């Protein structure tokens, strides 16, 4: 297993255009990404999106971002969470398009604890819209939500990744939840 310094060197090389270095980072961190995806998709029986597919689709999005720069492990996981979010949202859109009518309803809740799986439905689409609004107001709060909700990381893991206190992350999570809930309630029925 590579250490953090080695991963940082590979990320520097990847930032300079070394595709092989990015592949080494992804291979090294694959198990962590797969565990994140598995946690998030737990309970999604009968779905065509499984943890392996989610990681692979996220990988394709990561390598497809020419401007992607991974300064360190935290930035890499932030990009990975964003890529996973994108894959999950695309999957939810596709599922809804296949449903008769594809009508969406208003989302009015966001769990305090993100213990279970993401629901691959219209709730995810509503959350994605609200999260985009939050990112326009405060990117830091949106990043905490992505890492928590879409990557399935705990407050402690996010704090370590972002080199901040767990208490600070908890406050950010609470602020973000309040913003998202207000945004979801104000959203007109689609």
Automatic annotation (TrEMBL):
Domain RNA polymerase sigma-70 ECF-like HTH: 5-183
UniProt cross-references to Pfam families, sorted A to Z: Sigma70_ECF (PF07638)
Residue stretches in coiled coil: none
InterPro entries: HTH_Sigma70_ECF-like, RNA_pol_sigma-70-like, RNA_pol_sigma-70_dom, RNA_pol_sigma70_ECF-like, RNA_pol_sigma_r2, RNA_pol_sigma_r3/r4-like, WH-like_DNA-bd_sf
Keyword annotations from UniProtKB, A to Z: Sigma factor, Transcription, Transcription regulation
A GO biological process held by the record: DNA-templated transcription initiation
Any one GO molecular function term: sigma factor activity
SUPFAM superfamilies membership: Sigma2 domain of RNA polymerase sigma factors, Sigma3 and sigma4 domains of RNA polymerase sigma factors
NCBIfam families recorded: Sig-70_X6, sigma70-ECF
Family the entry assigns: Belongs to the sigma-70 factor family. ECF subfamily.
Name of the protein this chain belongs to: Sigma-70 family RNA polymerase sigma factor
């Amino acid at each position: 297993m590579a250490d953090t310094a080695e991963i940082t060197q590979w990320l520097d090389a990847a930032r300079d255009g070394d595709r092989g270095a990015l592949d080494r980072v992804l291979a090294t961190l694959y198990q962590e990404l797969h565990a994140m995806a598995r946690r998030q998709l737990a309970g999604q029986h009968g779905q065509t999106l499984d943890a392996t597919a989610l990681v692979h689709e996220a990988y394709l999005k990561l390598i497809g971002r020419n401007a992607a720069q991974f300064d360190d492990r935290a930035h890499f996981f932030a990009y990975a969470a964003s890529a996973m979010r994108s894959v999950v949202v695309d999957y939810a859109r596709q599922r809804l398009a296949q449903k008769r009518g594809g009508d969406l309803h208003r989302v009015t809740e966001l769990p305090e604890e993100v213990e279970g799986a993401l629901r691959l439905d219209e709730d995810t689409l509503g959350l994605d819209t609200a999260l985009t609004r939050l990112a326009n107001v405060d990117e830091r709060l949106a990043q905490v939500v992505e890492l928590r909700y879409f990557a399935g990381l705990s407050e402690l893991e996010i704090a370590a990744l972002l080199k901040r206190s767990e208490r600070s992350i908890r406050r950010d999570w609470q602020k973000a939840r309040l913003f998202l809930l207000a945004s979801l309630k104000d959203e007109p029925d689609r």
